[in-house]
Amino acid sequence: MPSATLPKQRVFGEASSARRNIVARPSTASKKRPLDEPTSSPATRLKSSQNDTKNKLPSSQSKSAFESDVLERMSQDISDLKENNTEKDQAWERPPVPADFDPAKDSLCFQAIETEEGTIAGALPAIKMFGVTEHGNSVLLHVKDFKHYLYVAAPVAFTAEDCPNFRTFLESQLAQQQQIIHHVVLTMRENIYGFQGNIQNPYLKISVTDPKHINKVRTMIERGDANWKGMWKNDGTGIMTYDSIQYMLRFMVDCSISGMSWVEAPAGTYRVMKGDKQSNCQIEAEMSYRDLIAHKPVGEWSKMAPLRILSFDIECAGRKGIFPEAQHDAVIQIANIVTKYGEKKPFVRNVFCLDTTSPIVATQILSYDDEAKMLSAWREFLEKVDPDIIIGYNICNFDFPYLLDRAKALKVKDFEYWSRTKVRSVSKETNFSSKQMGNRDTKATNTNGRLQLDLLQLVQRDHQLRSYTLNSVCSHFLGEQKEDVHYSMITELFEGTPESRRRLALYCLKDAYLPQRLMDKLSCLENYTEMARVTGVPFNFLLARGQQVKFLSQLFRKALEQKLVIPNMRSESSEEQYEGATVIEPTRGYYDVPIATLDFASLYPSIMQAHNLCYTTLIKKRDIERWNLKKDEDYIVTPNGDMFVTVKKRKGLLAQILEELLSARKQAKKELAAETDPFKKAVLNGRQLALKISANSVYGLTGATNGKLPCLEIASSTTAFGRTMIERTKQEVEARYTIANGYTHDAQVIYGDTDSVMVKFGTTELAEAMKLGEDAANFVSSKFIKPIKLEFEKVYFPYLLINKKRYAGLYWTRPEKYDKMDTKGIETVRRDNCLLVTTVLEKVLRMILIDRDVPGAQEYVKSTISDLLQNRIDMSKLVITKALTKDDYAAKQAHVELAQRMKKRDAGSAPGLGDRVAYVMVKGAAGSKNFERSEDPIYVLEHNVPIDTKYYLDNQLAKPLGRIFEPILGETKAQSLLHGDHTRAISIAAPTVGGLMKFAKKTQTCMGCKKPLTGKEEANGAVCSNDAPRIGELYKKTLDKVSDLEIRFGRLWTQCQRCQGSMHCEVICSSKDCPIFYMRMKAKKDLEDANKELTRFDFDQAAIW
Amino acid sequence: MVTLDEIADLGLLQKPSDNEPEPLQRIESNYKPLSTFILPKQRQYQQQFADIYFLRLTKIKPAVEEAAIAAWKNTKIGGERAKKVERVLDVRQGELCWVAGTVYIDMPLKPSILEDVSKDRWISAPTSVGHYYSEDGQDSVMLEDDSGRIKLVGEALKNYFLVTGCIIAILGTENANGEMEVIDLKFADLPPQPDRWSLSEPKPKDEDVEMTNSPSSGSKKIALVSGLEFSGTSTAYATELNLLLEYLLGEALDPSVQSELSQISRLIIAGNSIAKQEDAHHASDNTKKPHTKKYGYDASAYNPIPSQLLDTFMSELLPTIPITLLPGTNDPANASYPQQPIHGAMFPKSRAYTALPNAENAEPGWLDMVTNPWEGEVEGWRVLGTGGQNLDDICKYVDSADRLGMMEAMCRWRCSAPTAPDTLWAYPFQDDEPFVMKECPHIYFAGSQPEFGTKIIEGPEGQNVRLIMVPSFAQTKEIVLVDTETLDVTRVKINV
């Protein structure tokens, strides 16, 4: 019997309204059986002449060649695969250390991925450097003997002989048991801050035995408690110390090691540790910092070691309606994908599962019946596979802490050893605060020796998106939708059969694989590695810390070369503001002629270079007199009134840094163009990006008043120069390109912003505009000091200038074909806009700019508005989503109110904290507030609640549309888009809930004239007697609607099947970010309703007789 | 003086024959439609499509497995005997095995609604792509059941037509990439065939006996036509349509042909009786708009002429010949498979000949408006016919012009619309999957085809199926006659 051979299909019960799209079957699954048995009555009438049972379609090719080639190869493969099954035999371990490895003869060379402070042999301070050799062996190198130090300016009378005495004095002031001060030496240094006349002054370098004492010593000195013999003048503000920097960075700076670079311990200089190992690295060694060789990450040393990257994801079985909590809810699956850097395919794919789970192709399934056992098995896997980088999506805030908390709740022994050392992993609350990214509460879990890359954090940091769910991020970058299983569904799948658990495992595996693919797609690893190499900071700093540390690392490196010391300035955040970039007032409008855009290449860096703006060149009036400097020869006065010495006196440090960065970028770009290997290409591209970003961030940090080393003189002078240059460019261009000078038109600068100027040369020829642009760029560049350079990059044609920082245009770099449509500052990504706004704006801009069809665009807007008012817009386009982050907002907000209302309706399915709430605005009682009129889209669908189309028109569409059309049509005409004929026809859904509906009596109306059908004859029919002749037409109209919806229904649900990768399983995805989620729900209901309408014709007298 | 008799010899005009012509009697039709594809009036749409695939697999899999066992039970490769595997996911690497499941073909060119939505295109528009297969080999074939799916590779696949939704068994082994190397594949082959007259009785042989045996009148015939494409705007082939009408009414040609025509017992119209409406839809296909755009429903956009013309055409035929009317893509019926009968509301004249509406177990009317696909017994033969969409959709999967071969494949797969619901819109069946051929038809036709074609295929148990591609009349001016005794097929071309 067939029923015996096929498993029963699983039926899912109803768990939450988030999955209300999954229907409770009207009847049970058992109805599928018994199956019709084929009635076997072979036709006897037709003669059967064919006995050949091989009915091939179309006739198959001869089998002989096939047998000899394919089958033989295959039987070979079969026996091979028997031995090496990818489902069972995935090698987890690293390759062993070469047997002939000899510390006396071989040097130890590895890529250092992480550096941390630690101790060795009891309490001796040492730097731990974790890394991977070229052969893929993991290394921990302890670097000893490096002493941390600080500088303090030596008093006038201080001599070299005083050093030992001063040291003794310091020790006595500190009054500690052991020795703290290592030594004190008198050296010649120069203060970085302000021009010192190129004279070095005596400074005391005080080194300490243990880096942990450095701050004690520093504060003691700064407070004036170490004022030996009162030699320092103390005016009450304390004594300035210099070179305040973290021990590890000090070490990296002094040894010129940058993050993610290769280091080498020459043969014979290091000792391999055996019994006293502190880690589970394959090779652990110790050495002195003096023998360590740091390779600059260029040429051969820009390679990457075969780093092991683990991408993982966990699934938890939550309870109904509650987001999983580690105290109660089990971890049921952990999917892992391990890839070696440089290889395309992962070499480990597995899922740790609780309970039996059916196998997955080429994936190892490890089933456990006990959660604690599974967790400790996973930890063993982690140690064995020994990843260098752990990646995932939202692992920092969810997966890591959850696993740790869960293991604690289950009392799994030694679960928390995830690091390479014997340090437990703990997850801590941290607060990340940066001027660039704002404040953010995160959790951090230490995995010493292993890097972490949370793709969520990374994408949030580097990209502006509508939504940051894995689903929408993937659809944005990888162009594919991902099945989204609601967490309440997970428990149900888990409690089902091995097959349903397999389905869950597949889902989990996909979620583990996507971060890896995202990382590859975005070249994150390469970009961040190069950023670490360029700026010199360790890899982990890049995600965990802000911009400043990168800049400081560069500054310290440069300062060390030039024997400069950096003052430890107390950071005081002042509200002092300086004037920013200038904006040439835009001449708003729609330009149907080419607009050339002239850009200053790296404007601020080049200003700082050109005018030698730096800490080291800043000079005060007093000093000018002191050294008798001449204006414009020895120093300049910036438009801002600040003074800096010229290159003649001293070349600024920042200028040097910038010069290096920019020339390195040029070099990287050159190499990039020549490179063919995709992996090396990614590295080089990452490098040029990193160099560009670092160069541009220099300016910002001099202006950061709460930073380590602010210097507003530099920042405000830079912007002041920028402003004059923009103005100057405008003057030069408008003065030169005139009819008087023999040009066809008078050029006009219509807009300028920060580092670009838009010029209307007046010509209608694209090629001509490009030539003039090129010419103008060269002409204006020649007026400025090198390396300031005005570049001609692109032409906008046509160009729609809406306002400051708001414009759109077609972007041309060659006259044959436009490159893209470029928009700035126009609502396309803001999330509190519904999708309708985005699509309408995009389409309107496309029509105006690409098709040059302004009347068409107007027509399109009108018909969209008409569709909106007649309720024909798909609801998914009207949904607005907001995250429910906390319960008590001070002001009432639509999504919070809705969440509360939903909780009252059905506590189990209401969105919880952290969920995204999706809502639409519905018609409310007169005078009700906006926040009272938000409603759950699914509820709206089910109950036919009328949408507040006016809200969408006035609050969502009106403003952005007005902005686009006003420059083109003028204010009055633009307004007419929102009022007019097309807004007259309105249709409102009749709700099935609320208010008077309880008392309403339903009467069918004529489909032609809407007259109520009250007569006995016509009550069940479709049309009134007057419209009877139109019956064919009206039937066709209703029918077309049905057909339309049928196609929708079919396309939508088959799409979901394709997306989930199975035709036989029910779609359980509830991704609210998916553009078709509401559409498919609506299609169901609409189709049923439309069919009901259609059946009315069966009872209509006019249609039958 | 030339007499008429003399002229007659020249083959020109003839004088009326002396003997009074026998009044010709249209032969009676033996006809029993089946309700296989009738949907309930109150249609549910809460269910999903997974059920269709599940039902189809459950129904066809046993037959496929039977065929597979017969073919492969002794197959050995490299000393290893092929093992049967129950579910797709039980396939293990390095094992020679065979397994049955549903084919899914992943094709990047399949129209994607996600793309259409993101580009704000009209999503119910008919698919514009000519085909789904891609020339550069981006398509991949998978086999799946409710346990999972596996990718199929291997030369063997190229020997067969394969489309999404057909049920096959494959013999092979999983390679290191987790793909299945296919060595051979099998399908269910033709289902059991019922005997002639298994559902209906031949009409009592009373006074007609003489006539049917009379030498002048050959055996009974059924006429098949499709793609009449009555149009509200074009009159390009109006003459041919008129001639067709006269031909079927027996008003044309000479008495001998007329008497032959009297043997046509039934006309089956297989879809697309109405021409595709030009510029019909207003919705978002809105680059160019008429100036007098109305916002909202525009009643004047409806052109009633095509259905009126069809109505007239049928009402003139109906007094003499019964008609079975299948809807097609362009006809006023719902869009998804199975298309339900065209409503009487469209045919005020002809609907008088239909069976009583809303009546239970009524005799089929003289005009029988049926579903597409449709199944029934005509002259005792089991007939399965479609408007052609099922065949057209399959053609988009395969880079081949062998449409008859694809019709044959459908029979051998035992599925009349395998690509529903993946690319052919379909009703989400839940309790029954009517596209599964439970019984083998004697005649299987598909309407609205670019050209005429026919062949007989045979099954392992002696089943014989007559396949007919009914050409579109508007394009070819051809109709098809099927002899109801020999099942021979002739094609009649209407030439002006």
UniProtKB/TrEMBL annotation, chain A:
InterPro entries: DNA-dir_DNA_pol_B, DNA-dir_DNA_pol_B_CS, DNA-dir_DNA_pol_B_exonuc, DNA-dir_DNA_pol_B_multi_dom, DNA/RNA_pol_sf, DNA_pol_B_thumb, DNA_pol_palm_dom_sf, DNA_pol_type-B. Residues 174-215 form the DNA polymerase delta/zeta catalytic subunit N-terminal domain. It holds the Pfam family POL3_N. Residues 1-71 are annotated as: Disordered. It catalyses: DNA(n) + a 2'-deoxyribonucleoside 5'-triphosphate = DNA(n+1) + diphosphate. Its EC number is 2.7.7.7. It is found in: Mitochondrion; Nucleus. One of its GO terms (molecular function) is DNA binding. It is an enzyme of class 2 (transferase). Residues 1006-1080 form the C4-type zinc-finger of DNA polymerase delta domain. Its main location: mitochondrion. Keywords: 4Fe-4S, DNA replication, DNA-binding, DNA-directed DNA polymerase, Exonuclease, Hydrolase, Iron, Iron-sulfur, Metal-binding, Mitochondrion, Nuclease, Nucleotidyltransferase, Nucleus, Transferase, Zinc, Zinc-finger. The keyword Phosphoprotein does not apply. Its cofactor is [4Fe-4S] cluster. Residues 537-968 form the DNA-directed DNA polymerase family B multifunctional domain. Signal peptide: none annotated. Gene3D superfamilies: DNA polymerase family B, C-terminal domain, DNA Polymerase, chain B, domain 1, Helix hairpin bin, Palm domain of DNA polymerase, Ribonuclease H-like superfamily/Ribonuclease H. Residues 38-65 have a biased composition (Polar residues). Residues 242-473 form the DNA-directed DNA polymerase family B exonuclease domain. PROSITE patterns: DNA_POLYMERASE_B. It comes from the Eukaryota. One of its GO terms (biological process) is base-excision repair, gap-filling. NCBIfam families: pol2. Belongs to the DNA polymerase type-B family. This is DNA polymerase.
TrEMBL record, chain B:
One of its GO terms (molecular function) is DNA-directed DNA polymerase activity. This is DNA-directed DNA polymerase. Gene3D superfamilies: 2.40.50.430, 3.60.21.50. Its EC number is 2.7.7.7. It is found in: Nucleus. Residues 222-454 form the DNA polymerase alpha/delta/epsilon subunit B domain. Belongs to the DNA polymerase delta/II small subunit family. Keywords: DNA replication, DNA-directed DNA polymerase, Nucleotidyltransferase, Nucleus, Transferase. GO terms for cellular component: delta DNA polymerase complex. Its main location: nucleus. Pfam families: DNA_pol_D_N, DNA_pol_E_B. It is an enzyme of class 2 (transferase). GO terms for biological process: DNA repair; lagging strand elongation. It catalyses: DNA(n) + a 2'-deoxyribonucleoside 5'-triphosphate = DNA(n+1) + diphosphate. Residues 48-184 form the DNA polymerase delta subunit OB-fold domain. Residues 194-217 are annotated as: Disordered. InterPro entries: DNA_pol_a/d/e_bsu, DNA_pol_D_N, DNA_pol_delta/II_ssu, PolD2_C.
